[in-house]
Each structure stands twice: as C-alpha cells, then as structure tokens.
Design goal:
By secondary structure, the protein is α/β, with parallel strands linked by helices. It has a single domain, classed as HUPs (Rossmann fold, 3-Layer(aba) Sandwich). The chain is 47% helix and 10% strand. It has nine helices and five strands. Strands 3-2-1-4-5 form a five-stranded parallel sheet, sandwiched between helices. Helix 4 links the parallel strand 2 and strand 3. Helix 3 crosses helix 8 and helix 6 runs parallel beside helix 7. It starts with a helix and ends in a 16-residue tail after the last helix. The chain binds iron/sulfur cluster.
Length: 223
C-alpha cells in the first residue's frame, strides 16, 4: 500500500493520453461520476482527448431525494458545459440493496475504511462492465478528484476491475495540478449544489452527528 501511494497517477494518465495523440480516431471513455461538481473538471480535461459517456452509477447514495438531485444536476451540467468532443450520459440502476449488501457489518467503519473499499469496487466494477458492453476503449472515475478519497486504492481497484472485465483502466488523480480547485470554480460558475457528505447513510449520519441503526433495522423507507 505504501508503495502505491508514491505513484503519480496523474502522470500515468497524461502518459496514456500522450500515446493516443498518434491515433487517428478519438478514443471512447466511460467515466463513472458520483456528482456534477466532481465531474466538472474531469470532463473539462478529458473531453479534449476522449468521447465521453458519463455513467452515473451510485446505489450508495442516501436519501433517494439526494440521489435524484445529483442525477439531475449531472445531466444539466453535461447539457450546459461546452466541450471539445461530445459527452453522453447514462444512468445506472439505483439498486440500493446491492450497496447495503456490500456494506453489511461495516456500519461503524470511518470514511476511507473497509466499507469505502467495497463501495468503490461496486461502482468501478459496474463501470468496467458498462465500458465492455459499449465497446469503449477506456473507463475511469471522477472519484479521484476528492481530497477525501484514497487515489492509490481507487487506482488499484480500477486496474483490477479493468483486468477482470477486459477494458483498459485510465489511471488518474484529478485533484492534482489544482484539479480540485478548478472543480470548485466551475461549480460556482454553474451555480451547482455541493453536498456536505460523501453519499451513503453512514457518511450522512457521521456528518450530521447521528448514529446509524444496524442495517437489519433500517426500514425500506430509510434506505
Ligand atoms: S463514505 Fe462514501 S465511499 Fe464510503 S461507503 Fe459511504 S458513499 Fe461509499
């Protein structure tokens, strides 16, 4: 793990992009996105080199209203933001039970703990499958723009899921080179809503100082 942390994933991303410049066709990329603000800089940067399909697959998000709000904002941002190459949008299934199944027994894990690893694998695995299904050249995630997320872990999971699905993983660490700062600028410019918690009920309650019930006790409505 220590060794992974030393890798400059944004330099790897640039090196991969450099190789593409000799190709005549613009490659396709399925970009997993957690929300419009995080996607903003990633789309600005990557759309110069790729035809992007933004894949909004986030069954972790709680409550439902938050999920739908983020999905709507994502679509509006794609519609309004000028890009060098076309950007499409696909919404995945909001299969919350899958997330709760993965998170079982991990209620009390802090953010960046084992529950997050499961959450990343669920979302990146689905993105790799979507990329394969669409015959995309690459897949990637906006999650590496967050200073709260472990870029080394995300890149390891992305690489492993890419190998499993047979699709190339585009490494990244979008927070580097002021990427995170740029995402806050774009968000302000487009009047976007920026949530104050990561996404799941556990992070929501942690942020708001509440205790989460055992998963078995969560009603369908709570979910
Ligand atoms: S804190 Fe964020 S990354 Fe971790 S499990 Fe919750 S939604 Fe997923």
């Amino acid at each position: 793990m220590k060794q992974e942390a030393k890798i400059n994933y944004m330099a790897l991303c640039d090196a991969e992009i450099k190789k593409l410049k000799n190709e005549e066709q613009i490659p396709s990329l399925v970009l997993h996105s957690c929300c419009a603000p995080c996607s903003s800089y990633c789309i600005e940067y990557l759309s110069r080199y790729f035809r992007i399909t933004v894949f909004y697959y986030n069954p972790n998000i709680y409550p439902d209203s938050e999920y739908y709000h983020r999905a709507k904002e994502q679509q509006e941002f794609i519609r309004d933001f000028p890009t060098a190459n076309p950007v499409d949008f696909i919404e995945g299934t909001y299969d919350k039970d899958r997330f709760y199944h993965e998170a079982r027994g991990l209620n009390d894990e802090p953010e960046r703990g084992r529950r997050c690893e499961k959450c990343f694998r669920l979302r990146l695995g689905a993105t790799a499958d979507m990329a394969r299904e669409r015959g995309a050249d690459y897949f990637a995630t906006t999650l590496t723009i967050s200073p709260m997320k472990d870029a080394a872990l995300l890149n390891r999971i992305g690489r492993e899921e890419g190998e499993r699905a047979g699709v190339r993983w585009l490494p990244s660490d979008f927070k580097k080179r002021n990427g995170y700062l740029r995402s806050t600028e774009i968000s302000r410019e487009y009047g976007m809503y920026r949530q104050d918690y990561c996404g799941c009920v556990f992070s929501y309650n942690e942020r708001h100082g509440k205790k989460t019930q055992a998963l078995n006790d969560l009603t369908q409505e709570d979910r």
